[in-house]
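INFO  loader      accepted 1 record
INFO  loader      residues=319
INFO  predictor   begin
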Amino acid sequence: MATIKLLKSGRWNAQIRRKGLATVSSTFDHEWQASIWAKDQEKELTPEFQLTFLELGLMYCESQLVNRSSYEETIRRIRRLSEELPAKASQISRKDMNDYRLRRLKEVSGVTVRDHMQLVNRVYRWGYREMVIEPDQVKNPCDNIVIPPPSKPRNYVVSKQELALLLNQMTPTMASIVELAYETAMRRSEILKLRVKNLHLEARTLDVIDAKTGDRICPLTTRAIEILTEIKAKAIHNESLLFRVTRAGVSQAVTRARRKAGLSEDVRLHQLRHSRITAVAAQGWNPQQIMLVSGHRDVRSMARYSHLSVHDVLDKINF
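INFO  predictor   done
INFO  writer      dumping tokens
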């Protein structure tokens, strides 16, 4: 820590004291000279920050994301980013981050670049918050860098006819996952975590464990029960996963099936969740009832998933 003071002689003295090191000092004619000297000395006395971005990012994942659905995907992104950016976290500059942004925008969508840049920002902010890194040693390379805008929300509602065309182009396992996404409004990660012990088919419910908003109970439609009964019959024991496929594999299967069926690009896996929530809302359920299906904890979040139109309320208006 530098201390600068005016001496009786009219000159300026700068001292730097650090624990475990001898005090260093020097005297100058002007205060600005003492200030520059102090900053230079502090740089020399401060050990260089050695953590790589990969190490810092993995520390973030282990601290914040263990047992969450985003854990493995975030690690993959951090490994990819570490290949594109300088090794040491302290050496990544704003120019490096901006160059990365411009380069990647030529290769992938702006939404992808936005997600990656926000991840870098989260890693550094976590490092500051947990005092793993110090702001005066390691600068956040995302500060004052233009981040691509978010994508516009998709309001597309997948019809049952489109769903049928999609399922016809899929394997039985993938078709079961996709149809469950529509029937239950569950997220992809929630479906892939399902085990036999989570099913309570006689009660028409299942347990959603470690979801985005925590554990919850999901009500089941008649069709969902039929699908799960068939899958459960093939399971070996109570701890068995219902589906042994990857998240990426499911998304790729939906993309291939959509293209084979000649469907709109808006027919996506997560849009089936939107579509189910919209169908429930159209029946006149109140927000609390809808949130029991969607798993949202906030009415505003739920509202973004419900894409009702004026035609959905015509029969409910009394003149």
